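User: Quick sanity check before I run a bigger batch. Here is a single chain. Can you write out its predicted 3D structure?
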Amino acid sequence: MLRNLKYAVKKLGKNKTYSVLNIAGLSVGFSVVTIIAVFLINEYSKDKSIANYQNIYRLYNSKEKNVALDYTLSNKFLENYPEIEEACAVRTFYGFDVPLSCEDNFTVENKAFLTSNKFFEIFNIKVVKSLSENPLADYQSAVITQSLADKLYPDGEALGKNINMFGFADFFINAVVEDFSDKSLNCNFIIDGNNPIFKSFGQSDNVNTSCHYLVLKPGTDIKALSDKLSSFISEQKPKVEEVALQRLDDIYLYSNDMEYNAHETGNKKMLNIFLAVSLLILMLSVINNTSYELSLQYNNLQNIGIRKSNGAGTSEFLNLFIMDSFLKVFIAFVFSILITLMALPFVNHLFMGALQPSLLLKPVFIVPSIFLIVAVVLVNSSASIYIFSRFDINTFLSGVKSKGSVTFGKSILTVFQLSISIILLASIFIINKQIAFIKHADIGFNKEQLTYVQFPIGTSEDKAKSFKNRIDQFVFVKSASLSNGVPGMINYTGSSNEAKNNPGFSDFEVSELLVDDDFIKTMGIQLLMGRDFRPDENNNVCILNETAFKKYGWDNFEEKKYRGRGDMDVIGATSDFNISSLHTLPVPVCLIFGDNRNDYAQINIQFQKGSTGPMLQSIKKEWDSMFPTLPFNFTFYDQFFDSMYQKEEKAGKILSLFSLLAFIITCVGILGVSFQNSLNRTKEIGIRKVNGAKISELLAMLNRDFIKSVALAFSIATPIAWYSMSQWLESFAYKTALSWWIFALAGIMTLGIALLTVSFQSWKAASRNPIESLRYE
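Assistant: Done. Predicted structure follows.
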């Protein structure tokens, strides 16, 4: 063993160029796998830090795919089902910001919970300090996290201080708890769910939009309990036909389509893509090493022949090969850990996460790493084992070199590397092209210089109109409009309700926006037929979008009515405008002119062209005069809609980085192969130069095989890239074209990079003095 180790170390020192390229390539491959592994461990372990997570389940409406169940059901569950040990309900302020103020400090939270003390027990929320035994002592109690306490009271004690919510609800801070941002269900501000101020919050005709979490006894039959709960809840709330139970640790990755979901969610498809790409990069690194071993075939034959002539047996050779491979793999793995630790801050920024080095010490990382090292060692040893299995002592002693199968093997590996590079490069181009397409696509309204400001909950219609009137006085305001709901954030949905008057008609869901008479003008929506609203028509007329018109099957709007909120006269139709991302097709939308049953929630402001900073400062002064205790928060529509594609942008950036690494590894591999090819053809190059061959002719001779490899790789990679990107684009209702030039550009760039890499070494070989070359040979 020691003798083989010494030989492996000596071999590394003897072939310094190969050793550096080999270990560098493996280190990069291991680093990518390590970084992705840490990311995947973090994603798949979400909520598993909660004690007893295996027995915590969320109840949801399985037919409607939402969690909109009545808040009061939790106590009934405990009373009627012995399988349930604990239960709590959580309501969230959904779809709008939550302004908080205390003394002179303001902040806005994007989430707040209404729940009970059971919440802290079930989710293992540690109480840092409290004024009472329970974090929520009464209806006036509020619980905040340590980070929010530090933000609101950076120089003092938050406990016992008053805090105002929405400008009208006062509480006192009864407890401060540790941050629980590592959990998929998290927020910074919590109050009692039975607080009478918000008793009607989230209330519809049938249910409150509440999530229910149940702690079940170990061994509970989940299907049987779901059936019993379905029967029970259908009696309580007839519209809930069937419910199901979802385990807590499944919520993060399997709830993207769940309506009213308060949990953060991951992207399972993206995780699979990252895993696949990281394994491909590792494969490229391993292929490089295998190519190096094949390139060093003759030197290996010399070593094998000498040792075999001296009586070395098969087991000794196998030990030698494995030790040689293990040394390189182990060194590369150590370097990869160091690279990972140094890269973690950048990785956290890229993944928008908080990955910790301690994840590298978990058994879930260590055990697979050991198996990975063993697998790579065995694969890397295969080249030497293959050479040994083909070795013939008589052929060696005769001095005959046989390189046909080795050359073919190197060619196959090179083509594979180039194919992966072309696929990744084409994928980058298509992803970036699609992101640019959706960002600049026509969404049916003018989002440039357009912003909206969220009013506090409970703002009266008169106060909202007064603020709008003040805004309208500014010369830089092109137009302003009040609404309840905006594109990208719909607060109400209704039904076409046409089937009862039209037998055979299939009713459909309609997204409702409650607007004033300036909405269409402010948003820049095109009116296709009919007319705009008039000030005296409040509460009895509406305008449908083109998709809704088509769903009704109408040719005109004469004497037509929308029955979603009673019988409203339809006075016109607009072109379709997007109320969500371009992942989905336009849906039926109804613009309702005001509604006395609801207050306005937003004001939309269209600015004149110019610098928006001073304009916003002027509007802020008006806001501070009308809402002095609340912070002024605004959202630009262009930024709001761009944020809907953050996952795609993040995937594009990460894939671009991976592709760059893949290219580097491929180039390192090609450089090593070209270096060995040049050495193998040293005598031929010298003879050709003596006979008058030009450097350009020698370069063409040395590069010809690589051009053929790129051409073959292009023909293999193009259909694979086309198919995979076609599948990815299927997630968008509006998608860019898979243009031929994308694949051609990927092939040309790969050819250019490969030729630059090969030509560097080829030029060195071709420009060498032929006498020197022949003497070397």
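The first strand starts at residue 56 and ends at 61.

User: Great, the batch can go ahead then.
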